[in-house]
Amino acid sequence: QVQLVESGGGLVQAGGSLRLSCAASGRTFSRYNMGWFRQAPGKEREFVAAITWSGSNTYYADSVKGRFTISGDNAKNTVYLQMNSLKPEDTAVYYCAARQIWGPLLDSTYDYWGQGTQVTVSS
Predict the structure, then answer these.
(1) Residue-wise DSSP of the chain
(2) Could you tell me which residues are beta bridge partners of residue 81?
(3) Which of 38, 107, 42, 99 is nearest to 68 (CA)?
């Protein structure tokens, strides 16, 4: 069982930066593949970024490529999402997710979810 708790959301002006953190519990966290998803009001949840458990591979949605960076620290059981050059369209609730088996970058393939953290980007 893995429990995930996100933090770091908030209100920021367009062009600004935020770093989201996802703290995980569970002795085998280092073997979990992690991802970030987001859901804007009235929209479906969408993939943002993912990282393999080893940290050797990262994947990004086209909409955030070059602006967001996902990273992990297994010693701290924490995954981060550094978000730079934020745009109003990045406004959403951001969710951290974990899965043991690598697969398509779909929310349905993730086993564990955090409660989400709100990110609001003003224009």
Answers:
(1) --EEEEE--EEEETT--EEEEEEEESTTGGG-EEEEEEE-TTS--EEEEEE-TTSS-EEE-TTTTTTEEEEEEGGGTEEEEEE-S--GGG-EEEEEEEESS---S-GGG--EE---EEEEEE-
(2) 20, 70
(3) 38
Buried b (16+ CB within 10 A) or exposed e, 36-50: bbbeeeeeebebbbb
- The pLDDT score that the predictor gives to residue 103 is 86
Lowest mean pLDDT of 53-57, 59-63, 96-100, 118-122, name the range.
53-57
